[in-house]
């Protein structure tokens, strides 16, 4: 499975202006395998290819306005923000290398598309790097749905490794239902479980794999709600807890945040106490939580298996190297 560079098809509004939000959601709609940060980067590349600017400062203003609109368009924008910030950093580092403006702009567009292609290919590298962690007769627990975890498990199955998987439904999104359906369609024995039964099945589990909306500077992981409690239970029962996150070499899932607890993660929803019953009460639960680094055994990435202490070092290389 090799990623191919797709033709950038921008979306314009009724006034003929480039619509960054509509373009972003179009990428997500047309490619179910694309991640939020990669879709954001693709949208920004499309912006560069359709916007007429005469100076670097003008381009940076256009880029800044677009990223602000993108970040406001999505409730859980942590990974999207990381992609926007990384691409902006990429532009800043390259914008002064060319004396002639049109050549500079062409270079940014071409390399931006290459940037996206390599980010997409990183999932295959993760699957290969994570393969040694899955053995015959393993019982694996995964939380909700994750493209990187799916790629890893499907790769292991293609190598004729026999294992079984517990998948949590993830009550806030029910994305686990789709994850279980995907694994079963590829011949992997799967049991879909309620979030509340994680403690019950933990003794039957050999290891846990989760994806990430973002990996913080501390090495902790921001992911769909319920990940934190799984991490705590994993430590209590001495089960390996692996985070599978793509593209550390592009850092689009490694975010410049340093939360100390789950309450430090920005959420659109709050937990309110009330005397009234609400039909949609559970829909207001926070979409993500934060699992501190001490609960994480290792991070499986496209450049190898890392300890949580390595995250800040990689971010320093990206941002200040």
Automatic annotation (TrEMBL):
Sorted keywords for this record are: Cytoplasm, Initiation factor, Protein biosynthesis
Predominant location: cytoplasm
Write down the InterPro entries for this protein, in alphabetical order: eIF2B_alpha/beta/delta, elF-2B_alpha_N, IF-2B-related, IF_2B-like_C, NagB/RpiA_transferase-like
Question: Where in the cell?
Answer: Cytoplasm, Cytosol
The entry lists its GO molecular-function terms as:
guanyl-nucleotide exchange factor activity; translation initiation factor activity
Q: Which Pfam families match?
A: IF-2B
Q: Domain of life of the organism in this record?
A: Eukaryota
Q: Which GO terms describe its cellular component?
A: cytosol; eukaryotic translation initiation factor 2B complex
State the oligomer form and interacting partners: Component of the translation initiation factor 2B (eIF2B) complex which is a heterodecamer of two sets of five different subunits: alpha, beta, gamma, delta and epsilon. Subunits alpha, beta and delta comprise a regulatory subcomplex and subunits epsilon and gamma comprise a catalytic subcomplex. Within the complex, the hexameric regulatory complex resides at the center, with the two heterodimeric catalytic subcomplexes bound on opposite sides.
Q: Which family does it belong to?
A: Belongs to the eIF-2B alpha/beta/delta subunits family.
This protein is called Translation initiation factor eIF2B subunit alpha
Taxonomic lineage of the native organism = Eukaryota, Fungi, Dikarya, Ascomycota, Saccharomycotina
């Amino acid at each position: 499975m090799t990623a191919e560079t797709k033709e950038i098809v921008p979306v314009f509004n009724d006034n003929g202006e480039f619509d960054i939000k509509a373009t972003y959601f179009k990428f997500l709609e047309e490619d179910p395998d694309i991640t939020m940060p990669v879709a954001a980067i693709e949208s920004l590349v499309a912006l560069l290819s359709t916007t007429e600017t005469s100076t670097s400062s003008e381009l940076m203003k256009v880029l800044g306005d677009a990223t602000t609109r993108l970040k406001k368009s999505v409730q859980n924008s942590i990974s999207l923000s990381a992609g926007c910030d990384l691409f902006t950093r990429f532009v800043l580092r390259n914008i002064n290398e060319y004396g002639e403006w049109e050549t500079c702009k062409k270079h940014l567009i071409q390399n931006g598309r290459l940037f996206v292609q390599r980010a997409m290919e990183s999932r295959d590298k993760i699957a290969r790097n994570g393969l040694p962690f899955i053995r015959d007769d393993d019982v694996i627990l995964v939380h909700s749905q994750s493209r990187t975890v799916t790629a890893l498990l499907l790769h292991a199955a293609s190598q004729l490794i026999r294992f079984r998987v517990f998948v949590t439904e993830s009550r806030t999104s029910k994305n686990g239902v789709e994850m279980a359906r995907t694994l079963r369609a590829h011949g992997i024995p799967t049991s879909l479980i309620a979030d509340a039964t994680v403690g019950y099945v933990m003794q039957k589990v050999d290891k846990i794999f989760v994806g990430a909306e973002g990996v913080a500077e501390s090495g902790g992981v921001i992911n769909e709600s319920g990940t934190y409690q799984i991490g705590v239970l994993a430590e209590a029962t001495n089960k390996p807890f692996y985070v599978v996150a793509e593209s550390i070499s592009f850092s689009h899932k490694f975010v410049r945040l340093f939360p100390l607890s789950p309450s430090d993660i920005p959420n659109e929803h709050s937990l309110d106490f009330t005397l009234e019953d609400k039909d949609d009460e559970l829909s207001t639960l926070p979409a993500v939580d934060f699992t501190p680094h001490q609960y994480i055994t290792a991070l499986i990435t496209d450049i190898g298996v890392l300890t949580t202490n390595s995250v800040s070092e990689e971010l320093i290389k990206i941002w200040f190297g």
